[in-house]
Design brief:
globular, single chain, alpha+beta, 8-stranded mixed sheet, Nuclear Transport Factor 2, Chain: A, 8 strands, 5 helices
Length: 191
């Protein structure tokens, strides 16, 4: 029964997105998410940068996975502004590195795959997860990227995946986050 209801919700959400008419921007119906999605699919790096929400993170002089390294002149434990990120392993992106990260995302011709309530993990803050399909460097390669978005419409984390397809990301989210997607798209090829 759950899978039937879930399938119907996917169909209804896809119809709402594709039959919105008028050639205007595709909408998820989630006001906190729509501006972020529009910035991504229109490849507007400046607008996207404005949605990034940094959080204070203690840097460390220890070299460990998932720890923000201190830069020269920063003592161990110094709070620095950073965005949670991942690409196979967790790391952080400071404000002076965000343009490179966003350019990487936008270079892959991102298309909305789906938007889900919740985040893929309890340690990730966020109220919504937007999954995008992005083109890889080789012809035919399609990978998934997740943007974790808070209830204020800010990007609080970005996950470039680890060779994961958008379909695999969505399947994981269906198990970890809300079983009901906030919205989904038919653009999710390569899943």
């Amino acid at each position: 029964m759950k899978s039937i209801v879930f399938g119907l919700l996917l169909i209804l959400a896809a119809l709402a997105l594709t039959c919105g008419g008028g050639g205007g921007p595709r909408r998820t119906g989630v006001s906190q998410v729509d501006p972020v999605v529009q910035a991504v699919v229109s490849r507007d790096q400046e607008a996207l940068r404005g949605f990034v929400r940094y959080a204070p993170v203690a840097c460390s002089t220890k070299s460990e996975i998932g720890v923000e390294p201190c830069r020269p002149g920063e003592p161990d434990g110094t709070l620095v502004d950073a965005l949670q990120a991942a690409q196979c392993e967790g790391h952080y992106i400071r404000p002076d590195g965000i343009d490179q990260a966003l350019a990487y995302l936008l270079a892959g011709n991102p298309k909305l795959y789906g938007v889900y309530q919740g985040s893929p993990s309890t340690w990730l803050p966020g109220d919504y997860t937007a999954v995008f399909s992005v083109e890889g460097p080789e012809p035919g390669q399609i990978f998934g990227t997740e943007l974790i978005i808070d209830d204020d419409g800010g990007i609080v984390s970005i996950d470039f995946g680890c060779g994961t397809s958008p379909g695999q990301m969505a399947e994981y989210l269906e198990q970890q986050a809300s079983p009901t997607p906030a919205a989904t798209s038919t653009a999710g090829s390569g899943g």
